[in-house]
Amino acid sequence: MSGSPLLVGLIGAGIGLSRTPAMHEGEARRLGLPLSYRLIDTDRLPRGEADLATLLRAAELMGFRGVNVTFPFKIAALAHVDALSEDARRVGALNTIVLREGRRVGDNTDLWGFGASLAEGLADADLSCVLVIGAGGAGTAVAHALVDRGARALVLAEPERARAEALRDRLAANHPEVPVTLVADAQAGLREGVTGLVNASPVGMAKTPGSPVPAALLRPDLFVADVVYFPLETRLLADARAAGCRTLSGAGMAVHQAARAFALFTGRDADPARLRETFEAFDSVPGGAPA
């Protein structure tokens, strides 16, 4: 490899354990591309320097080719781009911004990432009625991916009513044939006769530990998926396995969304299998921390 590295990064809160830099940089090395992936953790910045507008402008000034954005910016970022991909427009959230020739183009690789992960890990899951916990940026992508994969009804558990209604209305515009029920919390959602649940909230992340669902309410006929991947073994997934549920970790979504984002940043296709190897290498480190 030669020349100045292509700069890309991730903007989010509490992202110190993210495996995304290793995936992008490892794939770039295999392809002979000079690439540096930086973490921009707003939890580590002074308050006045942590707003998204400032960080995006700084990334442009430093010559970044693009950035991923994660919690809590996936919906807020819509106001800071010049154009949207069809996926980002349809979902109403983005997690990838390509910076090129003075323009910002937003995309949503989470939609593809969760859909591919579901097809890979739970292809025959019963999607008759799925509970989605969280109606933020991840929840919007998950909900649309579930419907794209054949979910016939959704239950959205979100305490912020306006956010829940916004997602319900967007789903109704894109998929009017799919009924959507709103509930205030996951416990209420489980009373709706659901066949599976997906945690798309930040509950379970290293900085917000715990589970959004009491273990006693989990039953073996449910499938349980989590989009959280640091830590990879969330309390929800551990409780679900103990209850006899089929489970899906956040690894697949992280890997497949990264592959799509890598292609947008570099113009080169990434190999999801190799990204998965890099992702899983973290688990050989004591405590699950990055090497």
Supply database-style keywords.
291 residues; alpha/beta; six-stranded parallel beta sheet; 10 helices; 12 strands; globular; disordered C terminus
The rounded Rg comes to 18 Å
How many helix segments? 10
Largest sheet descriptor = 6 strands, mixed
Number of strands: 12
Question: How does this structure look, described?
Answer:
The protein has 291 residues and is an alpha/beta fold. The protein is built from 10 helices and 12 strands. It has helices at 20-31, 52-61, 86-91, 109-121, 137-148, 161-174, 186-190, 235-242, 251-266, 272-281, and strands at residues 6-12, 35-41, 66-69, 83-84, 96-100, 103-107, 130-133, 154-157, 180-183, 196-199, 223-226, 246-248. Strands 2-1-3-5-6-4 form a 6-stranded mixed β-sheet, with helices on both faces. A 6-stranded parallel β-sheet has the order 9-8-7-10-11-12, with helices on both faces. Strand 7 (130-133), helix 5 (137-148) and strand 8 (154-157) form a beta-alpha-beta unit. Helix 1 (20-31) crosses helix 10 (272-281). It is globular, with a radius of gyration of 18 Å. The two termini are 23 Å apart. The model is unreliable at 284-291 (pLDDT under 50).
Quick overview of this protein structure:
With 291 residues, the protein is of the alpha/beta class. Helix content is 36%, strand content 18%. The protein starts with 5 loop residues before the first strand and ends in a 10-residue tail after the last helix.
Layout: helices, strands, pairs:
Layout: E1 6-12, H1 20-31, E2 35-41, H2 52-61, E3 66-69, E4 83-84, H3 86-91, E5 96-100, E6 103-107, H4 109-121, E7 130-133, H5 137-148, E8 154-157, H6 161-174, E9 180-183, H7 186-190, E10 196-199, E11 223-226, H8 235-242, E12 246-248, H9 251-266, H10 272-281
Parallel strand pairs: 1-2, 1-3, 4-6, 7-8, 7-10, 8-9, 10-11, 11-12
Antiparallel strand pairs: 3-5, 5-6
Helix pairs in contact: 1-10, 4-5, 4-9, 9-10
